[in-house]
Structures are given as structure tokens and as C-alpha cells.
Amino acid sequence: MTSTSPDTKQHCHALTAEDVLERLGSSFDGLSGDEPSKRLDEHGPNALSAERGVSLASLVFKQLKSPLIYLLIAAAGISALAEHYIDASVIGAVIVFNTLIGVSQEWRAEKTLDALRRMAAPRARVLRDGDVAVVAAEDVVPGDILLLESGDLVAADARVLDATELRVDESALTGESDTVGKNPEELEESTPLADRRNMVWSSTNVTDGRGRAVVVATGMDTSIGGIAGDVQTVDQMETPLQRRLSSLGLYVGVAAVMLAGLIFAIGIGRGEELYGMLLFSVAAAVSAIPEGLPAVISVVLALGVQKMAERGAIVRRLPAVETLGSTTVICSDKTGTITRNEMTVTRVWAGGQRFRVTGEGFAPDGEFTTDDGDSLGDDAPGINELDRLLSIGCVANNATLEQEDGRWRIEGNPTEGALLVASHKRGLLKCGLDSEHHRIDEIPFSSKFKYMATLDKAGDATTLHVKGAFERILEFSDSILIDGEECPLDDELRAEIEDAAASFAEEALRVVAGAYRSAVDEDETERSYAESGLVFLGLWGLLDPPRPDAIAAIEAAHEAGMDVKMITGDHVATAAAIARKAGILEEDEEVVTGQELEEMDDDELARRVRDIAVFARVTPSHKLRIVRALKAHNEVVAMTGDGVNDAPALKQADIGVAMGLTGTEVAKEASDMVLTDDDFATIVSAVEQGRVIFGNLRRVVMFLITTNLGEIMAITAALVLGFSLPFTAIMILWVNLVTDGVSVLPLGLEPKHGNVLKQSPRPTREGILTRVMMVRVLTLSPVIAIGTLSVFNHYESAEGLMMGQTMAFTTLVAFEWWRAVSTRSMSTSIFRMNPFGNRVLILGISFAAVLQAVVLYWGPAQQVFGTTAIGLAEWGVALGVASSVMLVDEVFKIVMRLRERRGRPASG
């Protein structure tokens, strides 16, 4: 048998591991050759059908069921009934054009978001051909051997083959709140799913330990797939902003229909033709509805998050884009985020002696010297203890050192990698030590216990090797190896070790300790063996300097009004040294430890949390308390995390930020954003881009509301003042569906102006339109209405209704062009901006100008729109009058800049 079957899936818990492998046509080395691709073709992707994206047909249907389309269909129907077939055909073409534009925009947005989902998709480690491979979770097939460790999301239903302290959180599937221990022993056939200790289930997460399991079911055949089959839902990732704008559209739509009714009543009261007023009223309602807004918002958000992804920040949930611009506090880990995470052992203490290590990075090039820099002889003091410590760094180690394309790289934990490199510099090769030491059992590293241990056999001797946080290892030790002898670890020696650790930490070094316990006869180990009776060997001092770009980013964050806090599990002195170098901690500020945090109640923490810049020796549960304390002050908190235990804090934070390189799958799933480079500077860059996106959304809304309101004011004023109708219905439709359309999307893509990080964070409750912006709208809309009606009245009196309507139409279109140009910046004068800064807008307006010329000068278009040709002088009048909206806006910008200079906030 070469693949899974329902029988294997249902009964594998009652079979031995060997029998399950045989039935699946697999082995302990995993699948081989092209077997994985064959099985992928046979079983399909390891994904739930509920995760399918949006179809093209559904997008078309969505466009056709919008209020705008209903109004246009009504207008087409009225035209057909009145036997105005040309008007009906034009409106039908408008419906098709609007639908195509909407579908293309939303399809583009959906494809962009789909690509980002794939970038953020879970991955799995499997054995294939005996080698470790990292594959997309959806490419996992029955028969694959999953390699599981703390923090992993289980990619598929699988039968456990071996396990070391393996525990899994199955609450998402079974509702059981406690984690479940796993082992490979076969069970009774009748054992219920929740009690199958030799099975791991898709979408559950590994909380502790490590193990291997063979996949027995994927996709919809998994237990979670059976549940998903009953609930076929798709998360459309609609943001609060989109919901608010949808509500706004609904209110505006209702108001537009009422206004259309009023316009119709006034027109009929004046004796206008019934058909003409029906069509005109529908067109007026269309002009009032900013129907293109939702699609444009979707595109702007999608393209914005795509730009973030190009900079290393993958947004997993669209609401995060809005929240980013309001972030006031960034709580960041130290290792790999503020620092480079390129650990290098530079100092060692062993046998009472201090040593220096040369070389940088992961290349095993360098040597050990005395503390004074002298070469080490074979009989140098402490040399035997040094080599014994370095051997622990090799044996109690799960990292591998590999050379690829001339570059050395670490597969695994960077800290373990650094210890491995240091051992190689002394000629202690991992492959040689591994052949001498057979690993019997292991206690995996845990952030809770802060150490790992391996039980190893070399010849007839069995030894427990332990490494981890130096305080913990020192606490577990009662003797020390000096001059080849195990001596009692008295207070004087403890003080010497603590002094060495403190001096390393003051040099911004991370401190790790190693120890051992001999004559362990057991075939397996327990924590009680590792937490007492150890022989202390020494300390490693690892350098992980701050990233230069992180230092600049922290300074930029402070300028942007954001507070930066470092939250680390590292030693106090190390944390303080790095924080001072990075610009987070002032010289006179103190670091608060996890123990001090434990002694504070929630009220005291809430009082002090804003004034604490660095938290050291903290646990993931402390992170959660810190987030809650900050949020009690209405701070908008971005929190970084990488471990499985960081998930609660990531979910509690306003922006949960997971590490893409070192983060666990559980942390990524709990996050709002994933950093592909684990770099603090990327967080600040994402905040900057979030502010740019929100600013562009404001531009789009400001433009649409200002121009649409100005148009409605012109129509209503004309009827009230007894003027003839200044536009035909087709003209109104053209302005709103063509002229608007070529301007709004380019405005949504406006590049950033200046340093947006020098602005203060936007209040979370501040709407997309502020009070100042509404004043601006109510100032500029009448300018559009008055200018349009003035031109209409003049040319109608002088040259007749057709010329008056043509000039009003052209002037209104020109108003939109000038308003689009002016809206590029809310406060900077257009005369001080790069005229080619938004080339998409220039192309859009140029295209609109060509289309306008077609409407004015092409005979068939003149008949449809009711236009006539105009000369250069008339063009000058239309463009000159329309430029008034830009000039008035320039005065508004001057006032805003004066307010800023006087220290008053100029919202918008």
C-alpha cells in the first residue's frame, strides 16, 4: 500500500508504529524520491475547502447587487420605456463599464491579499529521503514524517512514532483546556478521539517537548476538516474602516434617494418633462453616492500591505493597517529584533580562568586566547575544563553547522549555533562527539525552566549534560570542576562565578552556563535529576550587538511620538547594556526584573509601567501583564513575540508582531503581522507605511465627498433659483463614473510626503474625517457649485442652453481635476510639491482630458451627451474658474500651517 486509506486512518491508534508505516508505504526516514509529489496529486493540497478564495463570478455578482447599479438599471428602464434607446444604451454601457472597473479593482486586491496569505501560510518540518525539509503545510502528504517541537502547529492528523516530553494543546478540537501528553504506545481500538495519546491532530499546537509522527490524513480528511465541512466560511478580512464606510455609503444612499425625490418634485412643480426629470433625478442620486469608495479602499489597503510585505512586514489581518498609524508603544524583544541575532562566543570562563575567542559570525575561523590575548598552550590553566565545557556545547545541542555556497550557516537555534561554532574553533567537531556520545534521552529547552539537558552514553559511562541560564545552572550545582577535580561549590566560588557573569553582561554579552552529572544509570531522565547535584563547568559569553538600523529606527520611533520598551528574558546587565547602546535606556534609568514584576500588584504595575523602559528576566506571562497595564492607560501597543507562550500577549496587544525567522508557527498564527527579517526597523517602517495608507484613504474620501457635494449643491441651487437644468442626466453619470474613477485610485496611491514619522500618532477614536476636514469640505463644495452655476448662467444667457450645459459640464470636470491635484497634500502647498510626484494621477487626468475632448468634439458623442464644440477661450474660462477650488484650498493650507506654528493641532 502506497498511500493512506480510511481503514488506516480510523485504526492507526490501535496499530504499532511499524504497522502504520508499512500500511502507509513509508519509513522512519520519510518518503523518498518523487513519492511526495505523486501523493500530492492523488490527495490534493493539505488545506480545508473552506479556505478557497473569492471567485470571479462572486465579484461580478457583488458589483451587480450594489445600490448604484439598481439606480442605473432604473434609469435605463425609464429611458427604454420612453423610447430613448440611445440613452438606455449609454446607461447600459455605463453599467458594464462600472462593473468591469469594480471587478478588476477587487480582483486585483483579492489576488494581492491571496499572495500575502500564502507568504504567511504555516510551514512544516518533515523528513524526506532521511533529510530534514521545510515545506508549506499545504504540501504535506500522507506518509510524511512530521518533526514536531515546542511552538509548532501540527500540519495534519498523524500517528506518533517517538516523543520526548511531547505535549499538545488540543483545546481547539476537543475543548480540553489542559495540554495532552503524547507517546507512541498503541491503544485499544475503542479509545475515543480525545484520549488517543498516540495521535496528534491537525491545527493543534505543540506546547512542550519534541517528537516524530507519520501523517495519516490531510485536508478535509482530517478531524478538523470534518468540522470545517459543516461550516464553509471564508474570512473576508473586512476592516473596521471598511465597515464604517459601508455604513456611511448606506446613509448617503438613503439621503441621495430622498434628495432625488425632492429634485424630482421641484422639477415637476416647475413644469419640467416627466421623463426628463425621472432620468435627471436618478442621475442626481447616482452623483451623491460615493459608490466607488469601497472598491478603492480595498485596492488601497491591498496595495499598501503588498508594499509592507516588500519591506519585510506581512500583514495577516487588514485591521492592523489602521491600528499601525495609532501605535503609541512598541514592546520589543531584544535578541534578533533589536540585536542582529548573529550570536558569537567572544568570552568563556572555565576552571577559574577567563578566555577570549576571536572570529565573528558563524564561520568556524578563530582561536582561543588567554584573557590577556596570549596563545593557549596544551598545559594552560583551565584548558581541560574549557574543553569539557565546549564538549557540552556540542553534545547538548540540536543545531547543525553547514557550509552552503561558500557561506557558513546555522540550522536551528542561533545560540546553540554559536556554541557549536566556538567548539569547532577548538577542533571539537560535532560529528566526532556525536559518534562518541549516544543520546539516550533529552529534556528540551523551555522558556519556563530556562535550560535543556541530554542524557548521553559514551562507552560504559552515562552522563547528563545540562546548559541554560547561568542563574538556573548555578542554582542546580553543588560542586565545580577545577584543576581536573570536582570541588564543593562554596560561597566564595559562587561569588567568583557571579562576578564573571556580571562582567560579561556589562560588556553586553549574553551569558549561558554548562554543567554535568555523572553516573546516571537510568535509561531516561527527569527534571529532578537535572535540577540538583550538578557539577558546574563554566560560562559562555555571547555577543549579539544592536542592529545599526534598529538604533536609527528607535530614534525615529521616539520622534514619531512612540515609546519603545525592551522586554527580554536575558540577564539584567546584558539587557541594560544593549538598551543603552540602542537608545532605549537612559544612564540614570533602572531595569525592572521579572521577580520585581511578580512583587507588584496590577495597580502598582499600571502606575509605573509607562516609566519603565526595560524589563529583564521576564516570562511570557509577564508580557501579558505589561500589555494589559499599558492598555489600561489607553496606549495602543505593538508587542513582539516568537514563542508558543507569547501567543496570549500577541493576541492581547493591539498589534501582535511575530518573528518570521525564529518565531514558532503558534506565535505567527496569533499575530497580526509577521516580520520576515525579525528586524525592529521593519516594525517602525510598517508604522510609517500604515500612516501613509490611512492618509491616502483620507485623500480619497475628502476628494469624493467634496466633489459630489459640490455637484449636488449646483443641481439643487439651479432648481431652487429657477435656472434651467445645468447638466443632462448622461453628463452627471459621466462625471461620477468616469472623471471620478480616474482620480480616486491615483490619490489612494500618493507617495509619502516628508517624514510622516514626525507626526504624532493618530487617536484611535478619530474618524476618517476630522472636524477641520468637514469645515474644509463645507468650504470647498460651495466654491464648486457657485463656479459651475456662474459659468452656466453666463453662457446660457449668451449662447443658449446647449452651450451653457456644455460649459457647466466642462467646468465641473475641470473642478474635479484641480481638486484631485490639490488633494495630494492636506497641508503642503501644491506649488512646493514635486509636480511629477504622483505620475499615476497625471496619467489619469490626462486620460480624462482625452475622453472629455471626445465627448465635446466627436459627433456621435455630442448627440448622446447634448454637447457642442468649444474653443480655446472657453477652455480657458472653464479651467480658470475651476482653479478657484485649488486657490481657496491653498488659503486653507496657509491657515493650517499658521495653526501648527502656534502649537495648535491642525487635524487633517
Word description of this protein:
The two termini are 67 Å apart. The protein is 49% helix and 17% strand. It is an alpha+beta fold and 908 residues long. Helix 22 packs across helix 23, helix 28 packs antiparallel against helix 31 and helix 30 packs parallel to helix 34. The protein is elongated and about 115 Å long. The relative contact order is 0.08. Strands 10, 11, 12, 15, 16, 17, 18, 19, 20 and 21 form a ten-stranded mixed β-sheet that branches. An eight-stranded mixed β-sheet has the order 8-27-26-25-9-22-24-23, sandwiched between helices.
Can you give keywords for this protein?
elongated; ten-stranded mixed sheet; disordered C terminus; eight-stranded mixed sheet; 908 residues; alpha+beta; 49% helix
